[in-house]
């Protein structure tokens, strides 16, 4: 703590605290006593009043300023006594040519014994400059806030800088993704220079800006003619009368250099303190403008682009469609709208995992993009649905594009270790024939796409007016089916299978039913094919498997034992879902002896005889579950696969059983299959046994197990539970 008594008298003592405070003050400052003696002044004050070295000798205030004589000082002193602060403008004595006027601020100070005044000085030029920078800042900020483009904000900035400092030429350059300088603003630079700089690579010696961007630090070249950094561009700069260049990188918060801000001078020189102050303010403004541009772009990107593929989203598509339709109608030109939906993407996505599904979608997006012209629009509407707008294209050209799209997709993609060959179904509608507004065109293209799916996929279809009814029905069914899956509208029925030798229960077959809220109980025959086509079957099968295992646990809690339950699987399960993993998980959750679960697969799966089908079947067998070939005899395969595939059971198809007594060839086939089972040590289950006669024939043939209405229909849980506990008479 300073003692007041010594405070003022310490001011001329170089080792005192108050002295060093005064010396270090960031503004020009002096201390004057009542008589007008300058007791002390700091370097800044010295520099300003041009009085040689600091404290070279005491001065009187009247000697420093010509405008202050003794009378005026007395008056100022007088005024100062009742004011905290006094502003005045005075003329310097010593300044050689034109004495600038200085703005002074006087502040009275006193201790017990002494009185005096601090004087702060600012020359009017610097006041003007500081104000100028403030104004510039305000103006540029307003322009950023009003959403001007970064180029026009930077243009304004350069102009204002040049107005404040007419000796400089101001430029702003951007650095692009390839590390090249790009023109942003240079309002008073000659056009040919601007063009010569545009596109130059940044680097360790690439003029002031290229180097500043490269190093990420300020590069001040005071003499372009002799600085090695300018070696390659020296002539260019000199021929434009540019002699010095001070460039600062515009560094974003993440450290990335987004551009440079440069002041050029027409003579070799460095930057003045004012230039530095101004550049500091400008860099801040550049950063703000760039950040605002960045977030503007992010918002735009979010609003109008699909984040996964970077393709236009639904909103941008709609916008482009409106514009195209308007323009093309005027020009009497057609517009083709293509809707492309990947085949069975959901199954792929579910089985490979979502991140791999995403990867596949990105690959598909790139492939599609390459088939289109720059004026076409490719949008992703979420999921695996893409929409294309092909302005000016009629149907014959649309065919060419659709074929090109399908061909470009049909190349295998390695998704992690799995090879996937994406295929798609495309629907096409053409304006104005198929509609003049985008909603109608889109709806019609959608119907055509469903038609393409229904007719085998990996193909395209044009919209035809009569297409509506059938396709719409199918569409509605698919929607309902999806809902059924999420709302778990499926129930499982059980049908007994009887051992023909012991007359006891061999096992149960689980058969799914759809309890439709309006249609009531729907038989699998009417929805399984659609579920298979639309890739929904694996989810249904998974729900059935789960329900069966859960039910068996309940039965075993009630003391009811069922040796075996068969569950039907579909080819699609093997193709896309990880069946083994699903089964393994269910067996883990409901601890059942695995050999008490039989999975029914169809012959067509084996016709598929891909290596991984065999591997999957083997891995299922390794879990301990049994495999059965359903509807056996209806496929047209060679029987050799029975040797290769690890199955346990054959289900003699109902069609052979039906005509067993009338059709000798059916009888011969049934007989052959039963013997085949004997040879391969496989259980043979005869399906669809309805009469005593059929049963007797099968027993005669040595068939092991039978299932059919003769014994029991498929029953819901309650009924089958009674059936099981009542120990029914089956023969
Ligand atoms: P499937 O696996 O061959 O099942 C036997 C079908 O024959 C069942 O038809 C059953 O009700 C019927 N059936 C049983 N005994 C007789 C009989 O004596 N006479 C006649 N005429 N029919 C009999 P359902 O339940 O309508 O199932 C039809 C097909 O749907 C099944 O044929 C199977 O391929 C499929 N399916 C059923 N449930 C599922 C499931 O959960 N997943 C999958 N992927 N497919 C299933
Ligand atoms: Mg079956
Ligand atoms: Mg069957």
CATH class label of the largest domain: Alpha Beta
Q: Based on the structure given, which CATH architecture of the largest domain is correct?
A: Alpha-Beta Barrel
* Inertia-based shape: elongated
CATH homology group of the largest domain? EAL domain
What is the count of β-strands? 27
The average pLDDT is 89
**What is the beta-strand fraction?**
15-25%
In spatial order, strands of the major sheet run 19-20-22-23-24-25-26-27
Summarize this structure as a short list of keywords or feature phrases.
731 residues, binds ligand C2E, Alpha-Beta Plaits, six-stranded antiparallel beta sheet, 27 strands, Beta-Lactamase, 28 helices, eight-stranded mixed β-barrel, 4 domains, alpha+beta, binds magnesium ion
Description:
- 45% of the residues lie in helices and 22% in strands.
- It has four domains: 8-122, 2-Layer Sandwich (Beta-Lactamase), CATH 3.30.450; 127-302, GAF domain (Beta-Lactamase), CATH 3.30.450; 314-467, Alpha-Beta Plaits (2-Layer Sandwich), CATH 3.30.70.270; 491-726, EAL domain (TIM Barrel).
- Residues 1-5 have low confidence and may be disordered.
- The protein is built from 28 helices and 27 strands.
- The strands form five sheets. It has an eight-stranded mixed barrel. The protein has a six-stranded antiparallel sheet with strand order 3-2-1-6-5-4.
- It has 731 residues and is of the alpha+beta class.
- Residues 630-631, 651, 687 line the site of one magnesium ion.
């Amino acid at each position: 703590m300073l003692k007041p008594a010594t405070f003022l008298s310490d001011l001329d003592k170089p080792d005192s605290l108050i002295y060093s405070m005064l010396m270090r003050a960031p503004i020009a400052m002096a201390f004057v006593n009542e008589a007008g003696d300058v007791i002390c002044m700091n370097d800044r004050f010295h520099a300003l009043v041009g009085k040689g070295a600091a404290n070279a000798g005491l001065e009187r205030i009247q000697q420093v300023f010509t405008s202050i004589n003794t009378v005026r000082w007395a008056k100022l002193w007088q005024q100062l006594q009742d004011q905290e602060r006094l502003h005045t403008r005075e003329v310097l004595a010593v300044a050689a040519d034109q004495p600038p006027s200085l703005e002074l601020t006087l502040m009275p100070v006193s201790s017990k014994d002494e009185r005096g005044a601090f004087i702060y000085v600012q020359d009017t030029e610097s006041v003007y400059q500081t104000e100028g920078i403030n104004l510039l800042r305000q103006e540029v900020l307003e322009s950023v806030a009003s959403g001007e483009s970064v180029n026009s904000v930077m243009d304004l900035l350069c102009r204002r800088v040049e107005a404040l400092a007419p000796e400089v030429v101001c430029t702003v350059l951007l650095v692009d993704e390839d590390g090249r300088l790009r023109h942003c603003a240079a309002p008073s630079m000659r056009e040919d220079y601007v063009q010569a700089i545009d596109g130059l690579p940044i680097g360790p010696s690439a003029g002031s800006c290229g180097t500043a961007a490269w190093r990420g630090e300020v590069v001040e070249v005071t003499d372009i003619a002799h600085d090695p950094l300018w070696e390659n561009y020296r002539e260019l700069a000199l021929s434009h009368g540019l002699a010095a260049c001070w460039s600062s990188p515009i560094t974003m918060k993440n450290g990335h250099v987004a551009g440079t801000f440069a002041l050029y001078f027409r003579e070799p020189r460095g930057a003045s303190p004012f230039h530095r102050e101004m550049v500091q303010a400008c860099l801040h403004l550049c950063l703000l403008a760039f950040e605002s541009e960045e977030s503007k772009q992010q918002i735009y990107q979010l609003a109008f682009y699909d984040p996964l593929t970077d393709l236009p989203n639904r909103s941008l598509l709609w916008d482009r469609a409106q514009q195209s339709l308007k323009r093309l109608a005027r020009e009497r030109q057609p517009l083709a709208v293509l809707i492309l939906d990947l085949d069975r993407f959901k199954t792929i996505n579910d089985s490979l995992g979502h991140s791999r599904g995403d990867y596949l979608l990105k690959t598909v997006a790139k492939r599609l993009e390459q088939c289109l012209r720059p004026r076409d629009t490719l949008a992703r509407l979420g999921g695996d649905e893409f929409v294309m707008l092909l302005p000016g294209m009629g149907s014959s050209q649309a065919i060419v594009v659709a074929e090109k799209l399908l061909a470009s997709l049909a190349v295998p993609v390695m998704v992690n270790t799995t090879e996937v060959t994406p295929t798609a179904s495309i629907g096409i509608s053409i304006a104005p024939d198929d509609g003049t507004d985008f909603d109608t065109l889109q709806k019609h293209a959608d119907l055509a796409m469903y038609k393409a799916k229904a007719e085998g996929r990996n193909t395209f279809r044009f919209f035809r007016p009569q297409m509506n009814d059938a396709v719409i029905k199918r569409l509605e069914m698919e929607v309902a089916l999806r809902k059924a899956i999420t709302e778990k509208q499926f129930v499982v029925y059980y049908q007994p299978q009887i051992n023909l030798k012991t007359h006891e229960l061999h096992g149960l077959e689980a058969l799914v039913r759809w309890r439709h809220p309006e249609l009531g109980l729907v038989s699998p025959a009417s929805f399984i094919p659609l579920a298979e086509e639309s890739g929904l079957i694996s989810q249904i099968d998974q729900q059935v498997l789960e329900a069966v295992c859960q039910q068996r646990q309940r039965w075993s809690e009630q003391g009811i034992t069922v040796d075996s339950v068969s569950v039907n699987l579909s080819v699609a399960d093997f193709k896309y879902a990880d069946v083994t993993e699903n089964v393994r998980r269910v067996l883990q959750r409901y601890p059942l002896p695995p050999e008490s679960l039989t999975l029914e697969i169809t012959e067509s799966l084996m016709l598929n005889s891909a290596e991984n089908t065999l591997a999957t079947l083997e891995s299922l067998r390794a879990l301990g579950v049994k495999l059965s070939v359903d509807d056996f005899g209806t496929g047209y395969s060679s029987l050799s696969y029975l040797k290769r595939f690890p199955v346990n059971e054959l289900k003699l198809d109902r069609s052979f059983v039906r005509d067993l007594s009338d059709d000798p060839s059916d009888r011969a086939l049934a007989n052959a299959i039963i013997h085949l089972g004997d040879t391969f040590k496989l259980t043979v289950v005869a399906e669809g046994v309805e009469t005593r006669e059929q049963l007797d024939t099968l027993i005669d043939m040595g068939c092991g197990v039978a299932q059919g209405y003769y014994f029991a229909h498929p029953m819901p849980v309650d009924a089958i539970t009674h059936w099981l506990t009542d120990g029914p008479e089956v023969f």
